[in-house]
Please model this.
Amino acid sequence: MVKIRKYRPEDLGGMAALFRETVRTVCANDYSEKEREAWASADTSGWDASFRAHDTLVAEEEGILVGFADMAEDGYLDRLYVHKDHQRRGIASALCGALEERCRAPVFTVHASKTARPFFEKRGYAVAEERTVVRKEVTLVNYKMEKSNEKSTLAEFAREDLLRAAEERHSVRRYADRAVAEDAASLLSAEAEKCAAEGGICIRLLLGEEKAFGGLMAHYGKFSGVRNYFLLGGKKSADLEEKVGYFGERLVLLAQALGLNTCWVALTFSKKAAKKAAGFAKGEKSVCAIALGYGETRGVPHRGKPPEELCRGKNLPEWFLRGVGCAANAPTAMNQQKFSFSLKDDGSVSAERGRGFYTAVDLGIAKYHFELGAGQENFTWSK
Ligand SMILES: Cc1cc2nc3c(=O)[nH]c(=O)nc-3n(C[C@H](O)[C@H](O)[C@H](O)COP(=O)(O)O)c2cc1C
Model:
C-alpha cells in the first residue's frame, strides 16, 4: 500500500534520482531528448533547504520512494514527481490532494510541464500563461496554472487552522519582494474592518507602502522588504492597548493561516510616516504596526516560559491548560511574557499583566490565544 508521509532529509538522494529518471522517461512524448537532459541535469543542491521550508510529502510503498511533492505556504506547488514504474496509480493525485488540503493560501499555483498539464486540468487548474524557462541554454515550454482554494473563505477557517497558525507563527522581519495575493488581501482587509468595528478602534491595512519601514529605525530593527503592514490605534482610552493586542492578533493568525508572515512592531518603524500613510485623524493615537508579507523564511521558534509559569492554581481543568498552552505561543514585546491566567472560584478566568513596556498590548494578544486554545464556550472572563 502507498503511504504518504512528511519529508525527511534522508529522502533527498532518492528524490533527486527519482526526479531525473522521471524527467528522462515519462516526459519523452512531450520534450526532446536534449530538452529532457537539460531539465534532468538541474542543480538540486538547494533542494533540502526548500523541502524544509515547504510542506513536503513523499509517497512510499514498502519502504521504496514512489513519488514526492512540495508546496510553499503561499500555495505554489514547486515539484510533483512520480516514479516511472508507478504512473497512473493515483499517486500524483494523492500527493497533490494532500498538499491542497493542508494549505490555506487562497490560490494554488504551479508551473506545469506539457506532460503534467492534463493532470492539473483534471484537478481544476486553468492555464494563466504559457512560459519558457532556460535550462543549460535550452529553452523549455511550461504553463503557469492556477486554481482557487475553496477552503480559503473566512467562514471555513476552522479553529484548528488558527490553532495550527498559533503554533507555526514566529516573527518574521525580512520579506520577499512579492505583493500580497489579491484574495488574501481582500480577506484581511474585510477582517480588519470587522475587528475595528467590534473593538471600536482604528485599523488600516497599508499595501505597497514603503516609507514606514524604509528608514533607519526599521534598519536598526533588522527589518527588510516590509511593504505591507497594519497600523492599529484609536482614541485614547483605558483599554485601547489591550484591544489593539486582541484584535491585531486575530489578524496575525488569519494572515498566518493564509500563508503570510507577520511581526508585531511597537518601536522599530516610523510611526509618523505610518500615521500619515494611514490617514489617522487628529486625536487618533497609533499604538502598534504589524508587518505583513511573504517572509524570506518562516521565522524561528524562541525560548519561552513553560505554561506552568504563566498561570496560577492547582488541579486546573483541561480546557484551561489548553488555553494557557496556546497563550504560551503568543508574541510579546521583547519576548517578555509578563502575563498570567488564573481560574476563579466562580469558574471565570482572570488575566493579569506585569509591569513593563507594552504589557497591555501583550495581554490582549495572550487573551486572544487563550480563548482560541480554551474554547470560548468553556469560560467567561472575570470582571
Ligand atoms: C507589542 C509588541 C511589540 C513589538 N515590538 C517590536 C519592535 O518594535 N521591533 C521588533 O523587531 N520586534 C517587535 N516585536 C516582536 C517581538 O520581539 C517578538 O514577538 C518576540 O521576540 C517573540 O518572538 P516570536 O514572535 O517569534 O514568537 C513586538 C512584539 C509585540 C507583541
Remarks:
- The radius of gyration is 24 Å.
- The longest strand covers residues 138-148.
- Residues 2-152 form a domain with the Aminopeptidase fold (CATH 3.40.630.30).
